[in-house]
Amino acid sequence: MKKFLILTVTAGNGHNSCAKSMKNKLESLDPTAEVKIVDLLKTYSTKTRTWIADKGYNIAVSKLCAVYDYFYEQCKRKSPFKRYSCSAMAVAKTTVDKLLKEIVEYQPDVIFCTHFYAGAAVTAIKQVIDLPCKSVITSLDYVNSPFWEACVGVDYFNVPNEDFVQENLDEGFKPQQMLAFGLPVDERTMVETEKSKARAELGIDQNLFTITVMFGGGFWSGGLKIFKNLVKVLGDRKAQIIMINGRSKKGYDKIAKMTFKDNLKVVNVGFTDKVPLYMSASDVMLNKCGGLCATEVINQGLPMLVTEKIPAQEKYNLKYLQEKGGAYSFKNKKQLAENLFKVMDDEQHRQNMSKNLKALRANGISKLAAFMLDLPNADYSKLNVKEIDFDNFKKSVNKALKKADKAERKKAKQA
User: Fold this and answer.
1) 179 with 191, same domain?
2) CATH code: domain of residue 307
3) pLDDT at position 396, please?
4) What's the pTM?
5) pLDDT category, 304, cuts 50, 70, 90?
6) Cα–Cα distance measured from residue 284 to residue 269, given in angstroms and rounded to the nearest whole number
7) HEC letters along 17-83
8) Helix, strand, coil abundance in the chain, percent, nearest 5
9) pLDDT grade, residue 163 (50/70/90)?
10) What's the pLDDT at 185?
11) Given a cut of 70, is residue 221 above it in pLDDT?
12) Domain extent at residue 21
């Protein structure tokens, strides 16, 4: 039996979603596997830090996006040689004593991290103790975001594909650490249902051009406005709109009260576990561009129209998909109309966009889960727990990080 400790952080829904999907995949591949999910900050840190990572982050990316983007870019420009003294490490190291106790008591064979705080915490612990288990982190975006460089002490780092390997080597990771399996999302999104069959199963019109609108949860509230603009943009054109509101009952109720012209059919959907089926039934997707959501759409080969009112990492995701020929963006109603009609009026163009996206399909969750299941079992007999001073472990970590930071800054001067 192999034991897995999955470390996540609640900062939006993506990291937790990845953790749950990986747990399900590991257990499906090996029913004997024991998998435990722990929210790093909620379990081992303070309420204030937990609030900042979750609610604070959501407020920043929705209400203060320009400010968030500025600091994102500033952090992205910082030297990787400051990995041991960066703000992410400052947060991560506050969890190390309790996390180490968890590791010693649970004795996982593999630690899987969905957030850089978790990877940084493992890196900090390994400055003092040689952990018997293997550690794996995964990116959740199509960009090398700030602070992953603070996770350089883990055993493996999974990225979307080979396009993202070299930049991480430049940041200090070693070739043997790099995996390029693809972003790990629910494997159900890899299942494509033939369009007419999907529409029949959902009970929607077989012949109308179909646009799915989905903007996820969190504090972001622009979806309803974009839906209204889409209705205006379509004018007298015949189309079918699938509006997936998720857990936004307010949005669902508002749309339920609206009336529409006869040329439009609106399928108003609340929370659903049939998102892959709705995507299979669609011709184009209007969405934000979170890495995991984008990967789900990529898996369906569904051309994307992405709002530009998104935080920095999603802008990078969008840019990457535009360069690959699978997405358009819009910042206003005029651009929405222009780019929607490019896709709507040219079937060959839609097919080309779909082909470009399918070239990026990776089934990352299956590859990564299989890889972790093949890693050796950890031998904790060599870890002398009695010699660990848990009460003063944070001090030991702080001392080791200062030493490591000094060495890194020396490297920077020599570089």
Assistant:
1) no
2) 3.40.50.2000
3) 96
4) 0.94
5) very high
6) 17
7) HHHHHHHHHHHHHCCCCEEEEEEHHHHHCCHHHHHHHHHHHHHHHHHCHHHHHHHHHHHHHCCHHHC
8) 55, 15, 35
9) very high
10) 95
11) no
12) 3-183+364-414
